[in-house]
Amino acid sequence: MEQQKNSLMIYGIVVTLLLILLIILAITVYRQINKLKAAKKIITSAHEHLQNTNIKLSEANSIKEKYIAFFFDFYSKFYNKIERFTVQVEEKARDRKIDEIKFLINNIHLKREKEALLLNFDKIFLSLFPGFVEGFNALLRPEEAIKLKEGELLNPDLRIFALIRMGIHDTDKIADILEYSVNTIYAYKAKIKNKAIVNKDEFEREVMQIKAI
């Protein structure tokens, strides 16, 4: 009997130790699983961040390439026009043809040149952000959606926020580019934000979420 009791005691101790070991093992495994989950979350988050960064870099490079090409082409053509104009004026000046010089000067259409520049800007911007107008209107109350005139690609309101979408947030720079006063830019922005379905402070951030191609 004594031997049987001792055997049962030893068996009980062994079982208890095994249970303790199993509990310790279970706790260790549980902790490792939690660590793996946390690591997976970090890796997933880092991967998503990397993907977003790559998308933004790709978008930025695409914008940069298109607009560098655009402005190079535009200023090349503009320079050629100025060069031709200079040659013509010099020829007329040598021949003392003052009336013809006046005629040449009067036929300089700066407004038309600016309109052509803006039209080209609009075309290139919309080639990069074809859904911009639709996405922009989605941020406004339905009754306040911007309706473009026939032949119009962007209007002044859209053009201001198009520049913002391109990453130009400085109001002074936007004013310089569009040849408006700073106060006019503020007025345009305030007018649009008052029509928004999102918080005014969040509006520009939402505009930045409009996808490029």
Key terms for this structure?
213 residues, mainly alpha, 77% helix, elongated, DUF6377, transmembrane helix, membrane, transmembrane
Describe the structure in your own words:
This protein is mainly alpha-helical. The chain has a domain at 110-213. The chain contains eight helices and no strands. The protein has helices spanning 2-94, 98-106, 110-128, 132-137, 156-165, 171-178, 182-193, 200-207. Helix 6 (171-178) packs across helix 7. The longest helix has 93 residues, at 2-94. The radius of gyration is 34 Å and the shape is elongated. The chain starts with a helix and ends in a 6-residue tail after the last helix. The mean pLDDT is 78. Residues 2-175 form the DUF6377 domain. It holds the Pfam family DUF6377. This is DUF6377 domain-containing protein. Keywords: Membrane, Transmembrane, Transmembrane helix. InterPro entries: DUF6377 (IPR045957).
CA(first)-CA(last) distance: 86 Å
Largest sheet: none
Structural class: mainly alpha
Question: Any idea what the radius of gyration is?
Answer: 34 Å
- The tally of helices reads 8
Coarse shape: elongated
